[in-house]
Amino acid sequence: MSDLSSDELRRYARHLAIPEFGIEGQRKLKAARVLCIGAGGLGSPITMYLAAAGIGGLGLVDPDTVEITNLQRQILFGQKDLGRKKLDVARERLLDINPHLDVQIYPEFFTTANAMRIAADYDVIIDGTDNFPTRYLSNDVAVWLRKPNVYGSILRFDGQVGVFAPHLGAPCYRCMCPQPPPPGLVPSCAEGGVLGVLPGLIGAMQALEAIKLITGIGQPLLGKLLHVDTLSMRFRTLTLRRDPDCPVCGDKPTITQPIDYEGFCGISKSPTSASDVPAMTVHELKELRDAGDNHFLLDVREPHEQTIARIEGAVLIPLGELYNRTHELPRDRRILIHCKSGGRSARAVSKLRELGFNDVWNISGGIIAWAREIDPTMAEY
What is the DSSP letter of 331? Predict the structure, then answer.
């Protein structure tokens, strides 16, 4: 077990004063290595609290750069960090919190090609992501490597925390969610929004669960899902059960290596490719508008998004309502569809083409591209 230096003994004095924790708990933390997938809203408090607590090794996976929309909740970053790689900033910040920390960064997506390699060297995996393909991938990798998977999710005012660990007698994420929801049914935080303090609450709980697992104190949320409603400040704990027919952790598993998780979740890898979805740029859209083209501009974002920024003349029908409102769309005019950045609108184009609408086009880059390339006075979000 790793020895503690005199500086560490002073630094962790408040931990050492807890009879149930003490020096043995601190030594266990120092000897442990935790992988955090995602350095955003959840990843910020997760990594900062683990660093401060004295975790020995911390791995971070995230390919993104810091954007101004991150600053409302991603407390690892500040104004001066805009445009920088998230993990470069994160490593500096975490080492400033605790210079005894060993930080390993992976500025890349967590994928079927690298997930097993990255996760193999860690004792606990923490899921700080916001998309279903990565959630299923991180779950499956944790099951195969026999490592606890500390799960967290956030949306608007609600959050969830749980610990999935079949090797410890608990179910896995697939036992709770055997099938992903249809694409577009559950909005991401970018689409649906999130109260800025919520990831701080949920991320801190995830860090706490990791500490409990590592040190052996208390009762981790094994086989439990804690749901938090911050508007009423109600906490509900749900009991989860292992599914003996689970394809990954069940008695006769059928998935024993990484699969096509985007395909499993119904997400096209190239949703805006010319062969799949007809697309045009925001400059082409402007040319059509300037020329007085008689097209129908459809906005498939959520109503609150349109209050922030809108293209004049666009008709709002959220993606989740589109299937039941196709009677509102013209069949004798070209339909041009936009969303925030192009993903939801590409799915809308695909859906409408399946329903017999032939002249439908996706606006690549969505309203963000319009704001950046056409109308710089428009607000970005």
Answer: S
Long-range contacts of 6-10 (CB under 8 A, 24+ apart): 7/100, 8/54, 8/100
Q: Single out the catalytic residue among 189, 246, 249, 265.
A: 189
What is the distance between the alpha carbons of residues 367 and 338, in angstroms, rounded to a whole number?
7
Q: Write the Ramachandran bin of 269: left for phi over 0, alpha for psi from -120 to 50, otherwise beta.
A: alpha
User: Per-domain residue ranges for the chain?
Assistant: 32-264, 279-373
Instruction: Report the CATH superfamily, name and number, of domain 279-373.
Output: Rhodanese-like domain (3.40.250.10)
Indicate the burial class of 237 (C-beta count within 10 angstroms; 0-12, 13-18, 19 or more): exposed
Active site (annotated) includes residue 189 = yes
For the stretch 55-99, pLDDT in tens is: 999 999 999 999 999 999 999 999 999 999 999 999 999 999 999
Domain 32-264 classified CATH 3.40.50.720?
Answer: yes
Q: Spot the catalytic one: 36, 246, 249, 339.
A: 339
Cα 364 from Cα 370, distance rounded (Å): 9
- Decide: 320 and 305 in contact? Cβ < 8 Å: no
Read off the tokens for 62: 């995230």
In angstroms, the CA 55 to CA 36 distance is: 12
